[in-house]
Amino acid sequence: MPDDTTTLPAPSIAAQLAAFAHGLTPDMLPAAVVEQAKLLMLDALGIALASSQHDFAHCAYRGLHALGGAGDSAVMGAFAPLPLRDAVLMNGILVHGLDFDDTHPGAITHPSASAFPLALGLAAQRHASGAEMIMTYVLAIEVAARLGAAAQGRFHDVGFHPTGLVGAFGCALAAGKLMGLDQAGLEHAQGVVLSMASGSMEFLSDGAWTKRMHPGWAGVSGLTATALAGAGFRGPSQPYEGRFGLYASHLAARGLNADLSLCARGLGERWELMDVAVKLYPTCHFTHASIDAALALRAAGLRTDEIASVQVLLPQGVHPVVCEPVAAKRRPANVYESQFSIHHLVALALLRGELGLAELDAANLSDPQVQALADRIEHAADPDADYPTFFSGELRVRTHDGRELRHREAAHRGAPGRPITAADIEAKFMGNALLTLPREQALRLLDALLTADRAPDAAVLAQTLTHSNTSGTL
């Protein structure tokens, strides 16, 4: 008898992600995921408040306001509302502006900086519930984390900032979910946003401000692509595995491989949001383990006048970002550039005994002691690194009297197995919020976000969280 069975082709990655997004409901999120989501959003809000007093924030706001004028979407900090897409971009700039925001280690992305502004802005516009806002935020992170992990750290190798790339796809699906697109529309939104996703690492050359806008631009791209798809605009059906899809265009032409099996693995079973790491230092996450090692050696009694030389061991894959070129890293031209310099940051940690926003100032860039110690710091590859799962750091210090002191951190704090507590995150939020708000108001914002899943209307929640007004700062 003839065999009349047929083998159906496997669904595309876009189809699998669209099916998950279409079927997701708030009650499908485990309680632990909801609680962690609220803490991560709280962290993002605190950073945005701290960013709001900086020049880059005011420049960005003036530019966006000049282009689109006033709007009705809330902006974090003391800024007046903007049109939705401009508010998403502005809030993304604020969350990512100090490089103090969270990181998904496997994807090497800053997921909240795109997911939170998109979810907050769109949920408020549509008067969705707080629970629906949280679901939207979680969906954006789950998608972006998987797409970033599939690249296995290689986007950085070829000069692309993965936060801007994969964040756009996560935001497209999240926006589509909240806008009520059907599964076909969600697939098309991913295809459309393929032509919008971007993010260049060229900012490393001179400490330019462009990295700050990548997450917000991912949110804008996702929102725009979804609106087009919702109106019937068609996108490529294979935006990930296609001949000129995301991974072929960004990696394959350079001889680098991606593990596409990770793009949709474990959806709804394993929640990548639980692996998102909160930063305790306002610097590139690649530097945190080394900073911890430097602070541990200082706490153990090491004096900087004893140091003849320092060797810092880091994963080879992070060297182009925080170690090279050495001359520029030893003499960062501005504060933002210093946040990506292992030489400057380790020197600061050893000299000051702490590393927060107060230590990252222009005076320390030209401090002779900092520069002299940075000149004695070399970097090398960590042969035992488990990158990109963990961002390790080890210091080997040679003293003038011939001793060698070592301290190793195999994983950065916040990595799987090294959790940061809810109390740590709340304390960080308060520290950042108190830079711009009275304590009573900061506590009200904290309470509002930590009860966001019970909020009936995200528009009211957004106004509370942003303390928006109609005569805000330009």
UniProtKB/TrEMBL annotation:
GO function terms (MF aspect): lyase activity
Record-stated family: Belongs to the PrpD family.
SUPFAM superfamilies listed in its UniProt record: 2-methylcitrate dehydratase PrpD
Domain (MmgE/PrpD N-terminal) ranges: 16-253
Transmembrane segments: none
InterPro entries tied to this protein: MmgE/PrpD_sf (IPR036148), MmgE/PrpD_sf_1 (IPR042183), MmgE/PrpD_sf_2 (IPR042188), MmgE_PrpD (IPR005656), MmgE_PrpD_C (IPR045337), MmgE_PrpD_N (IPR045336)
Database matches in Pfam families: MmgE_PrpD_C, MmgE_PrpD_N
Domain MmgE/PrpD C-terminal per the UniProt entry, residue ranges: 281-447
Protein name listed in UniProt: MmgE/PrpD family protein
